[in-house]
Every structure is written in C-alpha cells, then in structure tokens.
Design goal:
It is built from 7 helices and 12 strands. A 5-stranded antiparallel beta sheet has the order 1-2-9-4-7. The protein has a 4-stranded antiparallel beta sheet with strand order 3-8-5-6. The chain folds into 2 domains: 154 residues, Jelly Rolls (Sandwich); 80 residues, Orthogonal Bundle (Arc Repressor Mutant, subunit A). The radius of gyration is 19 Å and the shape is globular. By secondary structure, the protein is an alpha+beta fold.
Length: 247
C-alpha cells in the first residue's frame, strides 16, 4: 500500500464521514474564512490525504499545483543544497497552510515526521473560491506575513544567537504552539528527532543533546521519554531565549 493516500476530503481514510464543519483545526486555518453555510463548497474541492512517517507530500521544485492544509501530525520542511545537504526551515503542524509559492514550483519539501493528515486544494479551484470569499484571500495574506516574520526570526536565530539561546528559543516556541492548540500550558511533545532539531537550529546533534541536558540539570526544563518536555522555569527560559539572561 502506498505511504501517501488520497481520498475525498469529506471522508476519513477508514471511510467515515469527516465534514469540514467538524474539522478540529478549521478555526486555526484559512478555512475559517468560509461561512458555515458554504463549507460544502470548500469540502467539494478538497482531497484528503495521509502521509506516513518519512514520506514526502510536497517536493521542492515540483509544479506548485495545490495548497495543503495540515489537519493533524507534524511535518518537517526543508531545502536541499546542490551537494545534497539538508537545511530544515521549519516544522508544520495542524492548522498550518502550505504551498504559498511565489513561483510556479514549490520552494521546499514537506516530509511527514509522524502520520500526517491533510487536505489538498487544487490552486485553480481554490482561486475561484477566494474570488467568492475575499476574506479567505485576506487570511492567506496573513499567513504569508506570519511566514515572513518566522523567516526573519530564523535568520536572527542562526546568525546571532548562541547554542543555548537557540535551543531555549526553540523550546519556548514549541511550548507556545502546543498551548495555543491545547488552550493551556502543559507538557508538550517534540515529535521530531534530535537530528531534526539540530538541523533546524544549525547545530550538531551533540550540541543539542548537551544543551538539553544542561537545561535539565539546571532545573529549567524536565524531559521524559526523550520527547515530552515541561518548562519548569519559564522566566529564565524566556530571558535566555531573548538573550537577556545568560547562565
């Protein structure tokens, strides 16, 4: 069986109904711009998909023919250098809208870390919907602006921050993301491997592991099962992430 499966967006992979009205990430995505009464039009142009761990569902330089709205799971976004080296540029989670290409091809690859469910929208058909619902285009522009700010933050992180500041910034960002999704601060999970974190932060795996251990030994974080993290001293972590608290 293929590791990337497509099926009508109104259905789960198992064949049970999953209308857009009950999508748990709709309020966090561009789809929220569509009124409840018109959600059937949105569902009619969407194709649901499942990408198993380690499988691509967007490939850099392929024709950018569709948008992707992740409904669950986590994907790594990356670019490849001519010599084959990989730079992870971000991680996408439920509610993230991918494929806002400025050219006719995708600028990055998207690969499932765990099982990723998504809705795929053909660009030509979504443009028709945006014409009828201008608020959707406004939300797309907002998402594009958020991506620009994230890119600027990444430039600062890689260009000026120390290893400790980079790791602290990453953990704070992930905790905020989880809190936004869950509605409260709680232990959060890092589904990506240490190597992915290192690639994203421009560090070695050894540096990431050593820094996490030091933060844990200092009582700033707690790590269990290698992936579940609790920030114990948020004030110090925020100061470290912002470069105003060196320990």
């Amino acid at each position: 069986m293929s590791a990337v499966l497509d099926f009508p967006a109104g259905l789960h992979a198992r064949g049970t109904l999953r209308p857009c009205a009950t999508c748990r990430v709709r309020r966090m995505s561009v789809c929220d711009a569509i009124p409840e009464a018109d959600l059937a039009r949105l569902g009619a142009i969407a194709i649901g998909g499942v990408a198993r761990p380690g499988k691509l569902f967007i490939e850099e330089s392929d024709p950018a023919t569709a948008f992707f709205n992740i409904t669950s799971g986590t994907a790594r976004l990356y670019k490849l250098l001519p010599d084959g080296r990989r730079q992870i540029t971000g991680f996408a989670n439920g509610g993230n809208f991918l494929g806002l290409a400025v050219s006719d091809t995708y600028a990055f690859s998207a690969e499932a870390i765990d099982t990723v469910h998504y809705c795929r929208f053909p660009r030509t058909r979504l443009r028709v919907l945006m014409h009828d619902f201008p608020l959707m285009e406004e939300r797309l522009l907002k998402f594009a602006s958020i991506e620009l700010v994230a890119a600027q933050e990444q430039m600062l992180l890689l260009g000026r921050k120390s290893a400790r500041e980079r790791v602290a910034s990453f953990l704070i960002a992930r905790s905020r993301l989880d809190a936004a999704a869950q509605g409260s601060r709680s232990p959060f999970v890092l589904p990506m491997a240490r190597g992915d974190i290192a690639d994203y932060l421009g560090l070695t795996i050894e540096t990431v592991v050593r820094t996490l251990k030091r933060l844990r030994d200092e009582g700033m974080i707690e790590v269990s099962n290698t992936s579940t993290v609790v920030i114990r001293d948020r004030t110090s972590m925020l100061g470290l992430a912002e470069g105003s608290h060196q320990l």
